[in-house]
Task: structure prediction
Amino acid sequence: MRVTRQQAEENRETVIDVASRLFREHGFDGIGLKDLMAGAGLTQGAFYKQFESKDDLAAQASKRALESATGRWSAAARSNPEAPLAAVVDFYLSMGHCAEKTDGCPIVALGSDAARQGPNVKAAFEAGIADHLEMLSGWVGKADGDVPDGKAMAILSTMVGAVLLARSVNDERLSKRFLQAAAASVAAQSSAHDVQPSRRQ
Result:
């Protein structure tokens, strides 16, 4: 049966969504096209009708994952408009987020992989990281014009590094300590009075 243009586009979006999650779980090189397409309920033969290459899919999936991550930050911030940065810190530096391998932060899950990918994947990460910095800069201030403040860059680096380290060890208490230490560091780095280390870690 011939696939309609609308169905083909829906299938393509499904593949991108599924790939954005499976890449975060397995890495770009940790899963093949057959398993990616099976995860989307499609055959491998349909892949090349929708994407130029696996690299093309990796770039599209990276963009989708980073957009999703930015959306989660926005949702957390909206949940506490009086203290948006505190709300994001509380969500991001939590054991719950640390455990989210398929839906968690793609910068943590795929950052080191992205460094070994081509320019399209790196461009997707660059845009997504810029969005994160823009949000942080809105909460802690900008230095000059549209350039992200060093404070925002330091906060993002601290948060990403803490989740990466917390995921890298078996000792749950050590994981919590990494997250708690990062939350305290963000509070110290930020001039925003609303950032306090979470007591719910």
